[in-house]
Write a structure and sequence with these properties.
The chain has 50 residues and is mostly helical. The protein has 3 helices and no strands.
C-alpha cells in the first residue's frame, strides 16, 4: 500500500479510521501474483504487526 492508498482509505472511511494507525509497508509494485520474493518480503514486514 502506498501513501495515496492510505489517504483514500482515510477519506472513504473517516469514522472507521479515526484514531487508528494504518501501516504502509512500502513494498514496490513490481511483483507478480504469489511471487515467492513478495511473500518473503510481506512475511518479514508484517510479522511485527501481528
Amino acid at each position: 500500500m502506498e501513501k495515496k492508498h492510505k489517504q483514500r482509505i482515510v477519506e472513504r472511511f473517516p469514522e472507521e479510521t479515526y484514531e487508528k494507525e494504518i501501516i504502509t509497508l512500502n513494498i514496490p509494485d513490481k511483483y507478480q501474483y504469489m511471487d515467492e520474493e513478495l511473500i518473503e518480503e510481506l512475511n518479514a514486514k508484517v510479522t511485527d504487526y501481528l
